[in-house]
Description:
3 domains
Amino acid sequence: EASQEIFRIASMAPGALLLEAQKEYEKESQKADEYLREIREQQLLPEAVGQCIEAAGYEHEPHTQKSLLRAASFGKCFLDKFPPESFVRMCQDLRVLNAIRDYQIGIPLTFTQYKQLTIEVLLDRLVLRRLYPLAIRICEFLRLPEIQGVSRILAHWACSKVQQKDKSDEEVAQAINHKLGDTPGISYSEIATRAYDCGRAELAIKLLEYEPRSGEQVPLLLKMKRSKLALGKAIESGDTDLGTLGVGTQTWVRGTMGTLGVGTQTWVRGTMGTLGVGTQTWFCRHQERDTLKDLYNQDDNHQELGNFHVHSSYS
């Protein structure tokens, strides 16, 4: 509607008059003052500025966009308290739209589509097309929070990187760490999980070395059946509250307790003792089905043992 009001033939809408006033001002013509006075006498200058800003959003040609925004900027000079937010936001939106409309990107969204989709969905589309540099530049330009913007995009990039089969595990791990570093909101354990799902277990272990939180390292190591390594990580952390670690390593410890030093054995036994039966059962149900049967036998839990056999027969 704003575009129709401004560009209609012989239109006398406030936005059309303001656009003409700005063009005459550039020509240093006195008609600029006549158009401007006509708008101000009707007290329609705020509406004229708003129309020019709105119409700029619906134009695809940058030259026309700039012409309308220059008219809006010209009109703002004669207003005392016109809020600048709408003008600034429109300039930002048009820069983003013009960038993605470029033939090399090929996402010709309209302004209405862009607003309906939201910037988050647009970034997801760019990420799916692996246009990571453009997505990151848009996040930085719009000053989006890192967790919502740059960190999320870098995480997607890293998950895509681990699927590259033409490079060694060491090269991929170093490239990811060099790019991500200690970026807030990045979870190396999630990237390692993706690597493991792609069949690159050694790469997953290398990526876990960059994960600073032991509580994030241990569950994946247990899933990968690296119980000894998981126990080592827990011992290094000194955190006896890593309940899932204790449960996960319990099976391994039964077979290898004799290979541990006396001090380590004592620490492990102390940790095992703090775990509830419910926690043990929960872990074994998800990770160690054979051990779950042993637990039920040990506790003479015939009801759950029967349920276990029924579920096993179905699977």
